[in-house]
Amino acid sequence: MEIDRIHFYLQNAAAWRDWFVNRMGFRPAKAIATDDTRTEAIYNGGICFMLSEYLNGGSPVAEYLKFHPPGVADVGFRVRDLDSVLKKVTDAGGKVLEPVRQEQTATGYLKRAKIAGWGSLTHTLVEEIEPLTPSEKPGFLTDSLDFAAIDHAVLNVAAGDLERALTFYEETLGFKRQQKFNIKTGRSGLYSQVLIHPDGKAQLPVNEPTSANSQIQEFLDANRGPGIQHLAIKTNNITKIVRRLRQNGVSFLSVPSSYYDLLLQRRKDEFGSILSAEEWREIIDLQILVDWQEDKFDALLLQIFTRPLFGEPTFFFEIIDRRQQARGFGEGNFMALFEAVEREQMKRQKLLRISNE
Hints:
With 357 residues, this protein is of the alpha+beta class. It folds into 2 domains: 2-141, Roll (2,3-Dihydroxybiphenyl 1,2-Dioxygenase, domain 1), CATH 3.10.180.10; 149-349, 2,3-Dihydroxybiphenyl 1,2-Dioxygenase, domain 1, CATH 3.10.180.10. Helix content is 31%, strand content 36%. The chain has 9 helices and 16 strands. The protein has helices at 13-24, 60-67, 82-91, 162-173, 215-223, 238-247, 257-274, 277-286, 334-356, and strands at residues 2-9, 27-33, 37-44, 47-54, 71-78, 96-105, 108-116, 122-131, 149-156, 176-184, 189-196, 203-209, 227-234, 289-293, 296-305, 316-322. The strands form 2 sheets. The chain has an 8-stranded mixed sheet with strand order 2-3-4-1-5-8-7-6. α6 (238-247) runs parallel beside α8. The longest helix is centred in the last third of the chain and has 23 residues, at 334-356. It is globular. The termini are far apart.
């Protein structure tokens, strides 16, 4: 099982199509319109996003936006055997929202169904039954290779719901538990458990807040319920991509210079052997976070996080580069990341206080 296309529900799909094209280098593929919904499909490398807006109140997008701000409504998964996956879902008490149907697409033939996920989230399950060869696939799938794939999707759930959410995904879709984290800063905290599918590359970390002022709780309040907090986009050249994104106007969380001073104190000699002086300067200039495996130091994990996209402190992107097949999720960066998010929280709270005075 692997993460397939991601479906956003929002206002003004065409405007957001242009944002993704102009800011993040996506390419438009096609627009699809029904009586109540308009959808823009966009691609970059191995990633497909669907951007849907409502045309009238009968649209599922309109229903979703009654209860939530714009964001990810559906995380799709590619599966090997759709019928067996659906049987597992129903045997575990899961709900099938759309039954199996077969269709022809730009990349071949497939079977598709949709199930209910956690909260308002849904999951479209796709089985390719007669894919085209790479040479037969349309150009927009192969001529932009900036982004390789969705590395992982992060789900935030309410306090006390972590165990139930984990069990749900274990029993319905067959995920298995991997790393778990208990993160505490001076202001707040969270619990996190990583789910990884044994039959593929799908990774789904799940977070719950451990304090009322946690950034996870802020997400839950703004999103008005659980949902996808961020998507990690995998690239093989993070400095090139981040420089281009910054030039295009994408806004990222800031990292204090003291972070890099601490890195050098921890691993000064080793960095010189695996990162050129030029690349190290770029990493600092672009404010990219650096982590590594203790048992394999040259397996570097480089990552950076955007600010929220949709105006509220909900959905954002992570850009991630796994050198030498680095594992994990940047555990060594968790404190720096969460302190950066908390600085953004404090800015928002300060602005809110000023606007209310």
